[in-house]
Design brief:
Blueprint (H helix, E strand, L loop, with lengths): L8 E5 L4 H12 L3 E6 L2 H15 L3 E5 L5 H15 L4 E4 L14 H29 L2 E6 L12 H21 L4 E8 L5 H14 L3 H10 L9 H12 L10 E4 L11
Parallel strand pairs: 1-2, 1-4, 2-3, 4-5, 5-6, 6-7
Helix pairs in contact: 1-2, 1-8, 3-4, 4-5, 6-7
The chain binds NADP nicotinamide-adenine-dinucleotide phosphate.
Length: about 260
């Protein structure tokens, strides 16, 4: 399927590894010029060089912490200076600690909300005025299926994700008439470094080994397997493209129909 993304400009946050990296790779291979962000500049530069070499597209690394407004604005300005426009925004910079209510500290709750929710708010707020001027744009927030299903070991993610879904619906309402499409993609477990860390923490809290934690995760998914980041990237790229011109304000799961919490009673 031709996604018609050649010469579009995409900004992807949280893209030195994991889902963001695969989204950047996929969009670059579809012909987008790409700007990627993450905190660690060395890892980010390395990823940018690898994606550029693999795809032949222009890939710009802009290191920044998406939990800080000044960094977000600086990265957006750098993208505009480099390419003059941003057609596609994909937010992936998020991480939320797992744990039980009695263990989670105020700091952990705030850390989750400040990045996974407010980081997405800040990025959209910074990019949207430019998309409004252009009269077009596609925004895809990579959120997570915990925004809709209860999961008492993943509450900090769940709360931030639920806030993201409401935020995305609201801005879809506001900016749709200005030519900006907004959708969310909601993975269950995806095979990334972040998932590996969650599996380890889950195993520790359940008193099992990591292989058993993985078995339980797979057992919670009717398709019986963890999603690959490339699969998420394919969905994001479709939503970012004009092929999805009528898909707007949608919250799309990509989780093998996982409806159960990871924790078993
Ligand atoms: N993997 C899953 O199972 C899963 C499931 C549902 C939803 N999600 C969501 O999908 C998104 C991506 O997850 P992932 O598994 O791909 O994570 P990952 O493998 O840990 O990668 C996270 C990326 O974000 C960057 N990042 C982290 N904190 C940042 C910050 N404060 N500012 C800027 N960049 C930051 C990281 O680089 P630096 O560390 O250098 O900053 C890295 O490039 C997250 O929002 C996550 O909540 C993941």
């Amino acid at each position: 399927m031709d996604l018609n993304l050649v010469n579009k400009v995409a900004l992807i946050t949280g893209a030195s590894k994991g889902i963001g990296r695969e989204v950047a790779t996929r969009l670059a291979s579809e012909g987008c010029d790409v700007v990627i962000t993450a905190r660690n500049p060395e890892a980010l530069e390395k990823t940018a060089a690898e994606i550029a070499a693999a795809t032949g597209s222009k890939v710009v690394a802009q290191a920044g912490d998406m939990s800080r407004s000044a960094d977000v604005d600086r990265c957006v300005e750098a993208a505009l200076e480099e390419f003059g426009r941003i057609d596609v925004l994909v937010t992936c910079a998020g991480s939320s600690p797992g744990g039980l209510l009695e263990e989670l500290t105020d700091e952990q709750w705030m850390e989750s909300l400040n990045l996974k929710f407010m980081g997405y708010v800040r990025t959209v707020r910074s990019v949207v005025p430019h998309m409004v001027k252009q009269g077009s744009g596609a925004i895809v927030l990579v959120v997570g299926n915990d925004g809709l299903k209860p999961s008492y070991w993943e509450m900090t993610a769940g709360a931030a994700n639920a806030a993201d879904l409401n935020f995305a619906s609201s801005i879809a309402d506001q900016y749709g008439p200005k030519g900006i499409r907004v959708n969310t993609v909601n993975p269950g477990p995806v095979d990334t470094e972040r998932w590996d860390g969650l599996e380890k923490a889950f195993a520790r809290d359940m008193g099992v080994d990591q292989a058993e934690a993985r078995r339980r995760a797979e057992a919670s998914i009717p398709l019986g397997r963890i999603t690959q980041p490339q699969e998420v990237a394919a969905l994001v790229s479709f939503l970012a493209s004009d092929v999805a011109a009528s898909v707007h304000g949608a919250h799309i799961p990509i989780d093998g129909a996982q409806r159960k919490s990871l924790m078993e009673r």
